[in-house]
Design goal:
Layout (H helix, E strand, L loop, with lengths): L1 E4 L12 H17 L5 E9 L2 E8 L29 H11 L3 E7 L3 E9 L7
Parallel strand pairs: 1-2
Antiparallel strand pairs: 2-3, 3-5, 4-5
Helix pairs in contact: 1-2
């Protein structure tokens, strides 16, 4: 499985809690690798006037449509054969909401998933 870290900008500076953001990215990337047996895991972002959008995309097994909202609940797991407590995505959701952001998933069985985190921030201009 290839890991692609796509950095579309020379710099994108935001003011936020780096530990929280690092923890969210660690969970999302770790989960992507856990459920991807071939292909890639890609992490990318977009800076916008109102905030930053971070995406973790994989070519893994995918998540059924009827399970996509429930995976953000505590102790929710889609399978029993992968290691974990089912708390990772719940923790991500709590952190992202604490930072006044949003987390969502789009996924298709057999094609993979795209987790999107949107975090607001005030863009600073240089004087």
């Amino acid at each position: 499985v290839d890991f692609i870290c796509e950095k579309p900008y020379q710099t994108c500076l935001i003011t936020s809690d780096e530990h929280y953001i690092s923890h969210v990215l660690e969970i999302l990337v770790s989960n992507a690798f856990k459920y991807t047996k071939k292909g890639y895991v890609k992490m990318t972002y977009e800076c916008e006037d109102t905030g930053i959008t971070i995406k973790v995309i994989d070519t893994g097994m995918g998540i059924p449509k009827d399970k996509q909202e429930m995976i953000f609940g505590r102790f929710e797991k889609l399978d029993t054969f992968n290691q974990g407590t089912g708390l990772g995505l719940s923790i991500c959701k709590t952190i992202v909401e604490h930072l006044q952001g949003d987390i969502s998933v789009k996924s298709e069985i057999g094609k993979g998933s795209c987790f999107t985190v949107t975090l607001p921030f005030d863009r600073k201009t240089e004087d």
